[in-house]
């Protein structure tokens, strides 16, 4: 059973629009949720993260909204830029565990 | 300069052979990891090491053996290679092994088994 699910699989937005990437998880023991950005041929790079005690985390144009009761979170990218075109992975960790569980990713394309 | 070095970037092997994937990190981190990314599955955790000791192993097959000769090295030996082993293997590291410790990923080694 996949622990972390993402939707949509792919998303295309115009430059300047807000991209919304969705994520849900199964295990209620997860307490830390990093989002990774991956460009072709590169490794994933941490973009922004949130712990389960918060419901919102903002860093520039990137904001995570977290709903613990529904086990859902979303990443909002405002004023999307063509350079944001990449695959975004939602991930989850549980307390006292090094393992990161990744979703399948959302491939974002930002058209100029 | 790259902080996590993985060698080689691309690797082609024949079924049944053995290969070693190299990983070195220059971040001064104490924990290192291996993940696998294949076409059909999301990024999967394989191993974690902390201070050169195995902490967690989620790889069912003993054909995968991590090797830590130095604190900043964590190589991955794969024996009796199968086509299903074809994937990109990522090494990662973090300052500590704690829950909130940010894991930094290397550029990966893409392995193709023919």
Give a brief outline of the structure.
By secondary structure, chain A is mainly β. Chain A contains no helices and eleven strands.
Describe the structure using short key phrases.
heterodimer; A: 112 residues; mainly beta; six-stranded mixed β-sheet; 11 strands; globular; B: 114 residues; seven-stranded mixed β-sheet; four-stranded antiparallel β-sheet
User: What overall geometry of chain B do the principal axes of the alpha carbons give?
Assistant: globular
Provide the residue-averaged pLDDT of chain A: 94
The amount of helix of chain B comes to under 10%
Q: Classify the helix fraction of chain A into a percent range.
A: under 10%
Strand tally of chain A:
11
Strand content of chain B: over 45%
Q: Give the strand content of chain A.
A: over 45%
Radius of gyration of chain A: 13 Å
Number of beta strands of chain B: 11
Average predicted local confidence, pLDDT of chain B: 92
- SS field, number of helical segments of chain B: 0
Uncertain spans of chain A: none
Radius of gyration of chain B: 13 Å
Cα-to-Cα separation, first versus last residue of chain B: 33 Å
Structural class computed from helices and strand pairing of chain A? mainly beta
Return the string of H and E elements of chain A. Answer: EEEEEEEEEEE
Task: Tell me the greatest interface.
Answer: A-B, 29 and 27 residues
SSE map:
The complex is a heterodimer of chains A (112) and B (114).
Chain A: E1 4-7, E2 10-14, E3 19-25, E4 30-38, E5 45-51, E6 56-59, E7 62-67, E8 72-77, E9 86-94, E10 101-102, E11 106-111
Parallel strand pairs in A: 2-11
Antiparallel strand pairs in A: 1-3, 3-8, 4-5, 4-9, 6-7, 7-8, 9-10, 9-11
Chain B: E1 4-7, E2 10-13, E3 19-25, E4 31-37, E5 44-50, E6 53-57, E7 64-67, E8 75-78, E9 87-94, E10 104-105, E11 109-113
Parallel strand pairs in B: 2-11
Antiparallel strand pairs in B: 1-3, 3-8, 4-5, 4-9, 5-6, 7-8, 9-10, 9-11
């Amino acid at each position: 059973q996949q622990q972390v699910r993402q939707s949509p699989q792919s998303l295309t937005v115009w430059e300047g629009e807000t991209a919304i990437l969705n994520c849900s998880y199964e295990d209620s023991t997860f307490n830390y949720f990093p989002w990774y950005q991956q460009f072709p041929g590169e490794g994933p790079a941490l973009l922004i993260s949130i712990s389960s005690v918060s419901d919102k985390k903002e860093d520039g144009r990137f904001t995570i909204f977290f709903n613990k009761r529904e086990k859902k979170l979303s990443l909002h990218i405002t004023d999307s830029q063509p350079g944001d075109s990449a695959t975004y992975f939602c991930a989850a960790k549980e307390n006292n565990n090094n393992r990161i569980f990744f979703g399948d990713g959302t491939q974002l394309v930002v058209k100029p | 300069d790259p902080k996590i070095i993985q060698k080689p970037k691309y690797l082609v092997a024949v079924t049944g052979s053995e290969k070693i994937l190299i990983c070195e990190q220059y971040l001064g981190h104490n924990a290192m990891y291996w993940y696998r990314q294949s076409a059909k599955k999301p990024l999967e955790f394989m191993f974690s090491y902390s201070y050169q000791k195995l902490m967690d192993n989620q790889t069912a097959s003993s054909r995968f053996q991590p090797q830590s000769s130095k604190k900043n090295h964590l190589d991955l030996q794969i024996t009796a290679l199968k086509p299903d082993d074809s994937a990109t293997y990522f090494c990662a590291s973090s300052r500590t092994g704690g829950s909130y410790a940010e894991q930094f990923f290397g550029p990966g080694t893409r392995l193709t088994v023919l």
